[in-house]
Amino acid sequence: MQFDKVDVQGAARRLRESLYKMGIEIGLGRSLEVVAAQLGFRDWNTLAATLGKTAGGNGTELGGNVPVLRSFDESATRAFYVDYLGYDVEWEHRFEPGMPLYMRLRRSGSVLDLSEHHGDGTPGSVVWIPVRDARAFQRELKNTGHHAVRPGVDRDAPAGPTVTVIDPASNILRFCQPDYPDEHFI
């Protein structure tokens, strides 16, 4: 049976919505794991590795990029990315309690890794993230609210209308509405 990323992510989204209506909240990562198990895969990573592969492929296909951004303050990072920007924590890792946190965040097709490990990422890095409607995204952020961030929409940005926010580690996230969205959304 052939699956594609849109089918699987859509199933995970529908699962979350159905459970939410029953009063059960789960993150995107958990819903992807459940869908993978329902389809007979060991876990989401195993299923994801099979998505989009074509018969006779030579194994040189590349997956989506995942930027690694530096973080310093776990609570400020969670408040910014999860509470304010609406990302879900897909997974997190520490070598042992009290050690630096490394976590993967996801919102729709956007995946970011955040790391407290020295040498991972550089504070002040810039990430360009496509968004279907920059104005709608900006309104969402305004309604969610953050004590230190109140972005507008730069309508004259070179790649299209852009909402720019700066995270607690000074990383710059540019949510841009591209002129040719079909190139950026599955």
From TrEMBL:
Entry superkingdom: Bacteria
Protein source organism: Rhodococcus sovatensis
Classification of source organism: Bacteria, Bacillati, Actinomycetota, Actinomycetes, Mycobacteriales
SUPFAM superfamilies recorded: Glyoxalase/Bleomycin resistance protein/Dihydroxybiphenyl dioxygenase
Keyword terms: Antibiotic resistance
Domain VOC, residue spans: 61-178
Family per similarity comment: Belongs to the bleomycin resistance protein family.
Protein name per the record: Bleomycin resistance protein
